[in-house]
Amino acid sequence: MIEVKNISKTFGETKILKDVSYTINKGMTNLVIGQSGSGKSVFLKSLVGLHSVDTGEILFDGRDMTKMKSAELKQLREEIGMVFQGGALFTSSTVEDNVRFPLDMFTKFSKKEKQKRIDYCLEHVNIGHASNLFPSEISGGMQKRVAIARAIALNPKYLFCDEPNSGLDPVTAIVIDNLIQDLTRELNITTMVITHDMNSVMEIGEQIMFIHKGNKWWQGNKNEIFNTDNKELNDFVFASNLFKSIKQQR
Amino acid sequence: MNILYHIGQFGLLQRRIFSKPAKFRILLMDTLKEMDKLGVGSILIIMIIMFFMGAVVTIQTALNLENPFVSKVIIGFATRDSIILEFSSTVTSVILAGIIGSNVSSEIGTMRISEQLDAMDIMGVNSANHVILPKILAMIIMMPFIVIIAMTMGILGGFISTYGLDSLDAQDYIAGLQLDFSAFKVYYSLTKSSIFALIIVMVSSYHGYFVKGGSLEVGKASTKGVIYSIILILVANLFVTHLMLT
């Protein structure tokens, strides 16, 4: 479980995050939604330590990340898996070598053990057949799967996904969403997904936080989102006619 | 203030680069790969450039020393010293700043904008150390070899050019090459070339590592990396020459 307590972050004169608190529960997919520029990516980057917060606490199972020394932070980062918006795969390495990278860096596995783990991760995301291809030789959806395989290679306790289905067709996007949800349950990990894709919200939104102008504006689940009278959230979620009509039918 | 900011940021980056690597075996493997990519990959172009440069230097020296009171062996002597002292190290380094500097800046810059460096940092891997240190080590190791090859090709180019010159024969050229030879000059050239190698990779890496934006900014960072590398090479050349030769 990750407990975020009253974090704030300012860049120059602009306050991006304003006193945001959120509890990210283990074993379920926790979504953070919001418009572009609302602060959700800064929120994610603060949680993984790419940005330091100005105030507040970020507790990873009780361990406060904001007070950690570099050695403790390094230890924590080994427990974190991250799937980037663009995949962030190492373009000069094959699919297999991308998954091998964290194993090479942080384990003392033998060559055989590493290969077994790589095969397991790639099979888990249904991409074992592409192990010898380079990222440029596979589709966007496959790249996301590889990114997920790399993220779970070290058996992370925490999985962060930054718009994992952006740029994907609706079918592949749902496959990726379901894959993240299945892995979260199966591996019993703490997962947080940043998205502004309403299909993802409806598909895997077990717990959702809506960020608006740097503030935590609303929290609930995918069923509660239909009954809220929060104007900004309604404007955001039901911006399209399709979702408006779905809401009206309910 | 801007210069101070860059100096500070450059210093902090060096501290990250020269920290203890996660695994020495990986550092060794990566260094070998970079030696092949950056070092071996640059040899052919350096050989071609230095061959023709040596030939032109010899011809120009010969044409400018057409005087019955000046010994012909001076032409070989002047060519040798020009090539050993300056052309093989400084000119080669300026050329390599263009070839390797732009390569390093754009590679690291692309890794930055495609979040590959962020991915490493989140995993707990020191991205500066993992990506830049092998390049620095590779170039420091490879640079003396490249410079020795450059010297050889320059002198060979000069030798071949003597066959097209009426005013100089090959025997005089060879005698000039051997005249008052001092191994210290080679040592001096190799020393400064290693310093230049360090400058090329560190400056180019810095510009790539902190790039923000998209591919256009990567291109700009690459250009900046080359320009600043060349300027710093020329400044360092002055200091090293003062320190070692005066």
Write the layout of secondary structure elements.
The complex is a heterodimer of chains A (250) and B (246).
Chain A: E1 2-11, E2 14-24, E3 29-33, H1 40-47, E4 55-60, E5 63-64, H2 70-77, E6 80-83, H3 95-106, H4 111-124, H5 140-152, E7 158-162, H6 170-187, E8 190-195, H7 198-204, E9 207-212, E10 215-220, H8 231-237, H9 241-249
Parallel strand pairs in A: 3-8, 3-9, 6-7, 7-8
Antiparallel strand pairs in A: 1-2, 1-4, 4-5, 9-10
Helix pairs in contact in A: 3-4, 3-5, 4-5, 5-6, 6-7
Chain B: H1 2-17, H2 24-64, H3 73-113, H4 116-123, H5 127-161, H6 170-178, H7 183-209, H8 215-245
Helix pairs in contact in B: 1-5, 2-3, 2-5, 3-5, 3-6, 3-7, 3-8, 5-6, 5-7, 7-8
Could you walk me through the main structural features you see in this protein, from its secondary elements to its overall organization?
- The complex is a heterodimer of chains A (250) and B (246).
- Chain A is α/β, with parallel strands linked by helices and 250 residues long.
- Chain A has helices spanning 40-47, 70-77, 95-106, 111-124, 140-152, 170-187, 198-204, 231-237, 241-249; strands at residues 2-11, 14-24, 29-33, 55-60, 63-64, 80-83, 158-162, 190-195, 207-212, 215-220.
- In chain A, helix 6 (170-187) links the parallel strand 7 and strand 8 (190-195).
- Chain A is globular, with a radius of gyration of 18 Å.
- The two termini of chain A are 33 Å apart.
- Chain B has 246 residues and is mostly helical.
- Chain B has one domain (2-19, 33-245).
- Helix content of chain B is 85%, strand content 0%.
- Chain B has eight helices and no strands.
- The longest helix of chain B has 41 residues, at 24-64.
- Chain B is elongated and about 70 Å long.
- The A-B interface holds A 48-50, 73-78, 80, 82, 84-86, 88-91, 101-102, 104-106, 154 and B 22-23, 26, 110, 114-116, 118-119, 121-125.
